[in-house]
C-alpha cells in the first residue's frame, strides 16, 4: 500500500512535536531512558499544585475503587498523544481478540497495524478526514448517513457521492454501479478522479439502524481492492449488537491493510467520558497522532486511567440487554400504532429505528412544527441526506432514553399526526 498518495497536503506537512517527543510517557517507553535520567525538557505543570488529592468511585453493582494521591497526580497530568501505554496495550489486545486482521500484526517489530486513543470516535473521524480528504475529492458514503459525518465532510469541499443502502446496509451492486464511472486501470494515473475513500457504518447505522451482512462486507471490500480505495469503518454500535455471534468486521477481512476503523465506548461506558479509538495501518495512525498533537494534544488522562479496562466487560453485557429490551418495546409499539401508516425494519444493533411515513412526501414540517405542537419529538430524515433540501419521507426514532410507556405514547401521537397529514 502506498499511503502517501492518500494524504492531503495539510497532513503530509504535519511534523511531530519536539516537546511531545520528549514527554515522560514517550521517553519512558524508549531504550534511551536510564533510571538516572533527569529531565528539564518538559512543559508540564507540577502535579503538587493540583487541587485534587484522591477520588472514589461506586459502580452500579456496589463495588468501589479509588484513585490514591499518586494515581490522581498521573490522571490529572498531560499524557502521550496516542493514549496512556497500558490502555493502548489493552485496546490492541481487544482489537486482536475481536477482529484479528488476517495479514497484519500489532507486534512492535512488524509495526503494520497501530491504534491511538481519541476523544470519542467523532474526533477520530475528523482527524481521519483532515488527513485524507482534499477539496474536489470524490468520497463515497452510505445514503442516508450520520449527520455528524456530513457536518465534518461538507466544509472540506469534497464531492460526496451517495451509495444506496437498505435494511442490510450498503448495497454492493449500487457501489459497483457508482464505481463503473471509472476504469480500475486508471486509478493511479495522474489526474484520476476515482474515489480514494469509502465511508460506512456497518452495524446499527445512524440513522437507519441497518447492519451489513458478512457477504456484503466481503463484496464491498473486494471492490475497494479493485479500485485501491481506503475504507473508513465507523463502528460506534459494534458493541450494541443484540444477537450472537456478532458479525465479522471489515477489519477482520483486511488482507491489504486498507481499513481505518473508528470505535467508541460512548454507548457502552459513558458518552461524557469521550473515549474512542482509531485502528488502522501504522503509517496512517501515526499521521492521525500528529493531527491530535496539533489540536487536543491527547484525550483526557483522567478518563483513561484505569477506566475502560476496569468497567468495560460488565458494562457491555448489561447495556446490550437494556437496549435489546428497548428495541423490542419500540417494535411492539410500532406494530401497535404505525402498521397502517408507516414502514420500517427492525434493527439488529444500535439504538435507532428508521421509519418511512406513508403518504408523506417530506417530514420536515410535520416533525419540526406539528409534532412539536403535539409534544412528540423525532428527527426528520432530511438531515441525514447529502442534499437536505430534497423531500424525504423518513423520520428517525431513538429508543435509548424513553421508557416503553413513553415510546408507546409517542407512537400513538405520531400515528394521529400521520393520519391528519395524509
From TrEMBL:
InterPro entries reported for this sequence: Aminotransferase_I/II_large, Class-I_PLP-dep_aminotransf, PyrdxlP-dep_Trfase, PyrdxlP-dep_Trfase_major, PyrdxlP-dep_Trfase_small
SUPFAM superfamilies on file: PLP-dependent transferases (SSF53383)
Cofactor(s) essential for the protein: pyridoxal 5'-phosphate
GO cellular component assignments: mitochondrial matrix
Matching Pfam families: Aminotran_1_2 (PF00155)
Domain Aminotransferase class I/classII large: 74-414
Keyword Transferase tagged: yes
Keyword Transferase: yes
Keywords: Aminotransferase, Pyridoxal phosphate, Transferase
Molecular function in Gene Ontology: 2-aminoadipate transaminase activity; glycine:2-oxoglutarate aminotransferase activity; kynurenine-glyoxylate transaminase activity; kynurenine-oxoglutarate transaminase activity; methionine-glyoxylate transaminase activity; pyridoxal phosphate binding
GO terms for biological process, alphabetical: alpha-amino acid metabolic process
Recorded superkingdom: Eukaryota
Descriptive protein name: Aminoadipate aminotransferase
Species in which this protein is naturally found: Gadus morhua (Atlantic cod)
Amino acid at each position: 500500500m502506498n499511503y502517501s498518495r492518500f494524504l492531503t497536503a495539510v497532513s503530509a506537512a504535519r511534523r511531530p512535536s519536539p516537546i511531545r517527543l520528549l514527554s515522560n510517557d514517550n521517553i519512558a517507553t524508549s531504550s534511551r531512558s536510564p533510571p538516572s535520567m533527569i529531565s528539564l525538557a518538559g512543559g508540564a505543570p507540577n502535579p503538587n499544585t493540583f487541587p485534587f488529592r484522591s477520588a472514589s468511585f461506586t459502580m452500579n453493582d456496589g463495588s468501589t475503587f479509588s484513585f490514591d494521591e499518586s494515581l490522581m497526580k498521573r490522571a490529572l497530568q498531560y499524557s502521550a498523544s496516542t493514549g496512556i501505554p497500558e490502555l493502548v496495550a489493552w485496546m490492541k489486545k481487544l482489537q486482536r481478540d475481536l477482529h484479528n486482521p488476517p495479514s497484519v500484526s500489532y507486534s512492535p517489530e512488524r509495526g503494520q497495524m497501530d491504534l491511538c486513543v481519541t476523544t470519542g470516535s467523532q474526533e477520530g473521524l475528523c482527524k481521519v478526514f483532515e488527513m485524507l480528504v482534499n477539496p474536489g475529492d470524490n468520497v463515497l458514503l452510505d445514503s442516508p448517513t450520520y449527520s455528524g459525518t456530513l457536518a465534518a465532510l461538507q466544509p472540506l469541499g469534497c464531492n460526496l457521492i451517495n451509495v444506496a443502502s437498505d435494511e442490510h446496509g450498503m448495497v454492493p451492486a449500487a457501489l459497483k454501479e457508482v464505481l463503473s464511472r471509472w476504469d480500475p486501470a486508471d486509478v493511479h494515473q495522474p489526474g484520476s478522479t476515482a474515489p480514494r475513500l469509502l465511508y460506512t457504518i456497518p452495524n446499527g447505522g445512524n440513522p437507519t439502524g441497518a447492519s451489513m451482512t458478512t457477504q456484503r462486507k466481503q463484496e464491498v471490500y473486494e471492490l475497494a481492492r479493485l479500485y485501491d480505495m481506503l475504507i473508513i469503518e465507523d463502528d460506534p454500535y459494534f458493541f450494541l449488537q443484540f444477537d450472537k455471534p456478532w458479525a465479522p468486521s471489515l477489519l477482520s477481512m483486511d488482507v491489504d491493510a486498507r481499513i481505518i476503523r473508528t470505535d467508541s465506548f460512548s454507548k457502552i461506558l459513558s458518552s461524557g467520558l469521550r473515549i474512542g479509538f482509531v485502528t488502522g495501518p501504522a503509517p496512517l495512525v501515526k499521521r492521525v497522532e500528529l493531527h491530535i498533537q496539533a489540536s487536543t494534544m491527547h484525550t483526557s488522562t483522567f478518563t483513561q486511567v484505569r477506566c475502560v479496562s476496569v468497567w468495560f466487560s460488565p458494562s457491555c453485557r448489561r447495556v446490550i440487554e437494556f437496549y435489546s429490551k428497548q428495541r423490542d418495546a419500540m417494535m411492539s409499539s410500532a406494530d401497535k400504532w404505525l402498521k397502517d401508516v408507516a414502514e420500517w425494519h427492525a434493527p439488529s444493533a444500535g439504538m435507532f429505528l428508521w421509519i418511512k411515513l406513508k403518504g408523506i412526501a417530506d417530514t420536515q414540517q410535520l416533525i419540526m412544527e406539528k409534532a412539536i405542537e403535539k409534544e412528540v419529538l423525532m428527527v426528520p430524515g432530511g438531515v441525514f441526506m447529502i442534499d437536505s433540501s430534497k423531500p424525504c419521507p423518513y423520520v428517525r426514532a431513538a429508543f435509548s432514553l424513553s421508557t416503553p410507556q413513553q415510546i408507546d405514547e409517542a407512537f400513538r401521537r405520531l400515528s394521529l399526526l400521520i393520519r391528519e397529514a395524509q
